[in-house]
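Hi all, long-time lurker, first post. I run a small reading group and we've been trying to get comfortable going from sequence to structure in the token notation. Rather than ask abstract questions, I figured I'd post a concrete chain and ask someone more experienced to write out its structure so we can walk through it together at our next meeting. Sequence below, copied exactly:
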Amino acid sequence: MRVLILATAMLLAAAAAQAAEPIEGSWKTASGATAQIGACGGSFCITLKSGKHAGKQIGKLSGSGESYKGEITDPETDKTYSGSAAVSGKALSLKGCVLAVLCKSQTWSRL
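-- Answer (accepted) --
Happy to help. Here is the structure in token form:
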């Protein structure tokens, strides 16, 4: 009976670990700051946790799996852009665009 309870507990823990979206977690930004991405409402909020702009929310993305879309704010200029993000392993590729033609990209790494 103990083995059955232990096996069930392990399966439930594994399912809970897989329930989180790949984008959630702590990331090292291109500038070296730490950003936290977590669920907020039906989206995912990006908040800087270290660096010059610590505490500032710099994005809100929607999506699931490996692909997300929304808005990304440059903390230096306070300008907001149409953005997208893609998760691939321990890398997060972010892209912000003005009028869908002038775009800048960054890659963050998972901490």
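A couple of things your group might point at:
The domain at 21-110 is CATH 2.40.128.520 (Lipocalin).
The first strand starts at residue 25 and ends at 28.
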